[in-house]
């Protein structure tokens, strides 16, 4: 089974570990470079991308993470993790850096104010309808030619902006979702990622 790390600087690490294990992968938290070196792939959980960036810098993981991604390590980022995998962000704080890897612009806190969360049904990667939980979620503003859009959703209670937004993308070995599949007990996104990891 592939060994998949979950970046454990912040966020709901245990839920991701459980979802990966139920999808047939070995899963372990990653906090140090030695732990990063030992995994085949990485999940970057939700949380707060500004904090995650600062912690990754403090733990001396920012450059090792960038290096692994550049070398082609499969990675899946959820919510703040999606922001971390974006080449460009809108609405970041002064000086905020990402790891990059996916040729897209991601807008932080795009669906509403800081405390806002909501749920929506979406079709992820043509695998049928899935209930998705969004918490202070970003959306994908635009994507480059190498990026596949795997899911779109809208916030039904917003009058001002009724359009569908891109909330799931893939570029080669990199996957990102605006939502939190680890919170709904639906392992389809994690299974999709484990399949990706087996391919690479
Ligand atoms: N708003 C957060 C950020 O900018 C993301 C929220 C989340 O991961 N649930 O990082």
UniProtKB/TrEMBL annotation:
CDD domains, per database record: GATase1_PB
Active site: 79 (nucleophile), 180 (charge relay system), 182 (charge relay system)
Gene Ontology molecular function terms on file: glutaminase activity; pyridoxal 5'-phosphate synthase (glutamine hydrolysing) activity
Pfam families: SNO
EC number: 4.3.3.6, 3.5.1.2
GO biological process, one term: pyridoxal phosphate biosynthetic process
Involved pathway(s): Cofactor biosynthesis; pyridoxal 5'-phosphate biosynthesis
Binding sites annotated in the UniProt record for L-glutamine: 47-49, 108, 135-136
Entry's Gene Ontology cellular component terms: cytosol; glutaminase complex
Catalytic activity from the UniProt record: aldehydo-D-ribose 5-phosphate + D-glyceraldehyde 3-phosphate + L-glutamine = pyridoxal 5'-phosphate + L-glutamate + phosphate + 3 H2O + H(+); L-glutamine + H2O = L-glutamate + NH4(+)
UniProt keyword Cytoplasm present: no
Alphabetic keyword roster: Glutamine amidotransferase, Hydrolase, Lyase, Pyridoxal phosphate
Subunit comment: In the presence of PdxS, forms a dodecamer of heterodimers. Only shows activity in the heterodimer.
Name of the molecule in the record: Pyridoxal 5'-phosphate synthase subunit PdxT
């Amino acid at each position: 089974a592939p060994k998949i790390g979950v970046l454990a600087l912040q966020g709901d690490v245990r839920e991701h570990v459980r979802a990966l294990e139920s999808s047939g992968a070995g899963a372990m938290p990653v906090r140090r470079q030695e732990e990063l070196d030992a995994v085949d792939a990485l999940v970057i959980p939700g949380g707060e991308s500004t904090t995650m960036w600062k912690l990754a810098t403090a733990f001396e993981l920012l450059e090792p993470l960038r290096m692994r991604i550049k070398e082609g390590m499969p990675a899946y980022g959820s919510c703040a993790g999606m922001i971390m995998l974006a080449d460009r962000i809108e609405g970041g704080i002064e000086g905020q850096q990402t790891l990059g890897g996916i040729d897209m612009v991601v807008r932080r806190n795009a669906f509403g104010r800081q405390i806002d969360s909501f749920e929506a049904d979406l079709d992820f990667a043509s695998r049928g309808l899935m209930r998705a939980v969004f918490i202070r979620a970003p959306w994908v503003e635009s994507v480059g030619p190498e990026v596949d859009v795997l899911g779109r959703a809208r916030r039904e209670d917003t009058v001002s902006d009724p359009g569908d937004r891109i909330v799931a993308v893939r570029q080669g070995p990199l996957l990102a979702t605006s939502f939190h599949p680890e919170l709904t007990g639906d392992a389809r996104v994690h299974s999709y990622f484990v399949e990706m990891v087996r391919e690479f």
